Queue: 2 jobs
Job 1
Amino acid sequence: MVEEIEGDEFALSTPPSVPRRTSKLGIVGAGAVGSTMAYAALMRGAARTVALLDVNRAKVEAEVLDLSHGIQFMSMAEVIGSDDVSVMADCDVVMFTAGAKQKPGQSRLDLAEATISLVRKVLPGIVEVAPHAVYVMVTNPVDVVTYAALKISGLPPSQLFGSGTVLDSSRLRYLIARHTGVAVQNVHAYVAGEHGDTELPLWSSATIGSVPILDWAGADGAGALTREVRDGIAREVVESAYRIIEGKGATNYAIALAGSRIIEAVLKDERRILPVSSLLDDYLGMSDVCLSVPSIIGASGVMDRLEVPMSSDEILGMRRSAEAVRSVARRFGF
Ligand SMILES: NC(=O)c1ccc[n+]([C@@H]2O[C@H](COP(=O)([O-])OP(=O)(O)OC[C@H]3O[C@@H](n4cnc5c(N)ncnc54)[C@H](O)[C@@H]3O)[C@@H](O)[C@H]2O)c1
């Protein structure tokens, strides 16, 4: 800082010692998803402080050390971690990835029950130390968990939402790009509805460049997205998580990058359009259910949901998805 001494002479003055506010990312669960998400966020320089919380103390301390040893090669940041909730104090954004893994013989519903009781045990304490954070649920079944977390925490629906179909949409875009031979970054297409078996690609509004996907002919018709091709791609999007889990036991890289994209949208108030799972209020006549629709994400969380034009089949698909999510939530008293 420069200040005028006399006439046109200038000298350096001491900067005021006002503490500067820096961004803090909290990640609950330092497992495959949580620790890779920390790595992705650090690599992208998303936050100045990354805090990990996990019941497994040895694991969280090891992840903190390993990540910290790589900081020299990234944007400057600090990584902290603990099994004590105070590590989450004053976070700006909290990604909730803690959850039981499906064990042999355990159904998806059993998993939902275990996860909801984990959220009930852990979330209120975090909200107490980080009341202003934006909360993003990642743990599965994410739509049901998000709905339960809203009820448990009492947070407004703009401040707590789920990662939803951000990952599924990137899988969809990858498959469309591979089929048509164009860059994935030029494919604009969303998967909406449940993050799960009833999810659906919104083909009628999807584009490549500015060409509607339904009109895309490709070179000599080779890359055309016929009904058969579209159905095959939609099936592959749903099945890809099962395939990855079968091969390596967990999905971590793409969900970590998808999560990092959400983190940056919040921390930098980017107002990006992302298909997150939030509490719908008269969206296509649907209310009181958490489902993914393209939404505007900024510093305060979900700022708005887009009224995407949908075909009658897509509207029916959304309603089917809402029913599937609702029926699981009701089984657990939500
Ligand atoms: N929404 C998505 O798109 C998406 C994608 C991939 C995975 N997931 C989900 O993310 C979750 C995590 O998957 P993972 O592969 O990282 O599992 P993981 O078992 O590797 O990690 C879970 C971590 O949670 C921790 N944990 C358990 N109870 C805790 C508690 N009370 N407090 C703090 N930490 C606790 C465990 O110690 C473990 O380290 C699963 O539910 C998975 O289905 C969601």
Job 2
Amino acid sequence: MSDWGLKKEYLHSTRQHLWNDDYFEFLVKSVWKINKPVRIIDFGCGYGYLAQMLMPLIPDGSSYKGIDISEELIKEANGIFESDKERIRFEVSDLNEYVACPEYDVVICQAVLRHIPNPVEILDKMIGSAKSGGLIICIEPSRRMENSGIYLDSTDFDPFENDDFLRQKWIDEIKTGGRDYQIGLRIPAFMKQLGLTNIGVRINDYVDYVGGENKSEIKRFLNDHSVNPVYENSDGFVAARCQVITYGYKQ
Ligand SMILES: C[S@@+](CC[C@H](N)C(=O)[O-])C[C@H]1O[C@@H](n2cnc3c(N)ncnc32)[C@H](O)[C@@H]1O
């Protein structure tokens, strides 16, 4: 497993270009209808990005706990939320060792199940952490959709150039019990198998667009989306984030 504490810069950069605030607010208020105080747990919380997004939108009296295996990221999260530690707490914890207790109204993860080899086991623990009637939310990508959402405005650009590589990687990783590049699109089926009800699926509407002028933004884009630097002279850079948001309720 890679150490995300060493990829802090990448994590911060990508999180600044991941969500439209209005769409996230729409999910919280109109789709999930979080309109009374809730207790939230965030599996694989990183430096607490979802706490930053969620806490201003939910009713007073709510609380949040983030757990992550990276000591470095939890240290950073504790620093960011130093002044709010009554409501927002972080804990170093390996999800494989974590003992679930049904005490949360909302159990959430973002971009975590795609990085681990046993996503169904961890999803089961997420469900085990929810109270009866609790909401379980997984925000995860499908690498294939992500790849098809990239467009570079250049006559040299071949939108299919990564297809064979990704296909082989997906097959190899599934065979060897590694991570699943299509996880975002598989979660609805996993949630159903594990007994969740009222399952809903959405797509994050964020599109990262950079025009051809600002060199440092172009560099940032190429790095964030792992695009070959040979395309740095394109006239426009577009990447649809394509995160799949799946949610369901515990009976
Ligand atoms: C791509 S980052 C996402 C972080 C955060 N959810 C976000 O969206 O900003 C994946 C996170 O999963 C955490 N992670 C991976 N395996 C884990 C495990 N076994 N137990 C706890 N956390 C884990 C990593 O340390 C990392 O912070």
